[in-house]
Structures
1.
Amino acid sequence: MRACFFGDIHGNSHALEAFLLRLPEWKADAVYCLGDIVGWLPFGNRTLQRVRALGFPTVAGNHDLLVSGLFRDHPGQADRMQATAYNAGLLSGMEGAADYLSNLPLIREERDFSVVHHSPFALPAPGEAPTIQCFDYLDETALRGSLEAWRSCPKRLIFSGHDHVPAIYELSYSRGTPRFGEVRAFRPAGMEPLTVKISSGRRYWVKAGSIGGPYRDGCPCANAVLYDEDAQTLTLLRIPFPRGELHRELSANRLFGTIPTIRKYLELLEKGPC
Ligand SMILES: [Fe+2]
């Protein structure tokens, strides 16, 4: 069985199409979307329409829920709020868009893996609605705080998105309280895909990185993950996409020219391949 995971598309239809064009070559039996179909770029209507039509199993991202009005953002997230408001306006004319986004599940459980936008250990209590606090980033502090829960998690693999930084974390199965020093991190260098052989005695938390950006590892390419159960491998995929048209379209949006995160994103798109 081979499964492919992608998410954090954020309105970048150019990167999404580049990923979909390559998808057949990875011969995936199942494809999962890790959420954040919309948000950030001012083209969320395009990617939402495309992803809905594809019908892949999908989990909710924080941007999907923000745009659909399920909860408010942190007061300090001015850039994100501006992009959210714009995307909510775009989707207001799309039949059923807000209902679709707000009804996406927060997690999907498969036989040996969980699929979630951020963390299976930061979900709301049963019966409670999610809040923005369910979507902090998986930085070192958050990873340290999750070690105990991660080790006792019944699933061997976790696939998530959210941070826009592709990485594979490996946790060994020693006895006693898990220590942060037991976590090994694997990250791709440049545009080369990175394949990691997985071991039955270990657990893996795989961050897919982002299809559409903003790219927080400084590499302007689409990212996805392939899990090959038979070969027992995980591969972080790096997929180039045509950046010129996106740059032109984004530059033409004067409102988005006032958002510092988007200005930085445009500068990164101007860079050559990393
Ligand atoms: Fe995202």
Note: The pocket of fe (ii) ion is lined by residues 8, 10, 36, 61, 63, 162, 164 (CB under 6 Å).
2.
Amino acid sequence: MRFGITFSFFLLTLTGCGAEHGGRTGSDSQASLEAVTPESIQAFESTVYNFGKANGCVKCHGGSVNPQWLNADPRTAYSFARPLVNFANPTASTFVNYVSNNHCGDPVCRDPANTSVIQDMLLQWAAIEMNQASNGLPPSDGTTLANPPFVTATTPIPANPPLITSNSRAVVRFNLSQLQPPIARLNGAILEVSVQSYNSAYTTYKIFDLRVVGASAPVTLDGVHVYVRPATGTGIGNEYVNQGNIWSSLVALVPVIAVPSPLPTGPMTSATPLVGTSLAIPIQSASDVITIGFKDIR
Ligand code: HEC
């Protein structure tokens, strides 16, 4: 292992960066920094670090200017870079703003084309960090439910969904007449989620914009759980504990909205999404299936 040591020298106080970046508090960052693994450093090196070296950010951030997120020592660089990333929402990290905000008076800092490039890199880095939950990295807000009392039918997820940096998305729809056990008010209703890939390596789904149309009377969904597995498996699959179960505390009132006719190929925009947060769930195979479970429907 190249970086098989514990990092006790994180220079957090030198970054001049407070909790306003990305909403993580200093103590959260510190706690998770103690769990840094070689994989995390390599994920940083192969994404944001390489980008900064290749795009001239290194002229200043390599040493002469703090934060030194491009320090010649990748471990030191990582300690400056990590607090600037919002791992709950990587594309909203400070880097995304700074890559083209012209903060340095040099043309390298005002190229809007770099926005989507660095977003993609932040997502790849974040996906690797998030996969290390056993090391104490970002805990989930929700709880899991191995045997949800209500479940949808199991449905395929399109392979290689559009990237989060594109304007398109795949939609996956569930016929709620097939809910087990059935709920009369949801007979003929459709539940839809939108799906994108967080990165071009297709390692992580972004699941978002939960919508329901066609209820014949209002219904409350209490606790929404999302399960993914390869199509070749059995059962409902696994709930991803790290960023994959944050809808578990959702209590959403489904209004009465007609099923659009014909059904659009894109999202059913006649219905407002029931939740604003999105889930990050590892892609498990080229043909995965998804099932949605509920703690209660009333
Ligand atoms: C000519 C020098 C220079 C170059 C080149 C430069 N920066 Fe900076 N950067 C600065 C200075 C000075 C600061 C600190 C002042 C500030 O926050 O604006 C800074 C701060 C930052 C911060 C920290 C913001 C914070 O809130 O702590 C980020 C992130 C950043 N730069 C990203 C970049 C990126 C990405 C590039 C390359 C596209 C880049 N910089 C190129 C001078 C530079």
Note: Residues 16-17, 21, 52, 55-57, 59-61, 65, 67, 84, 94-95, 98-99, 103-104, 106, 108-109 surround heme C (CB under 6 Å).
